[in-house]
Amino acid sequence: MAGRTFRGHIAVMSTTLLFLLNLAVTIGGIASLVLLFVIEHSPSRTGWLLVLVGVFTLASGVIGLCSSTRRGCFTLQLILLAFSVIGLIAAALSIFFKSSQVLSTMNPQINYSTALKLLKLDSAILFITFCVQVAVLVLGVCVNCCDLNDYYQDLEMTNQGRGNLARAQAEAERQAARRESSKANQLAEQMKQKYGKWTGEQGV
Question: Would you call 64 helix, strand, or coil by DSSP?
Answer without folding.
Answer: helix
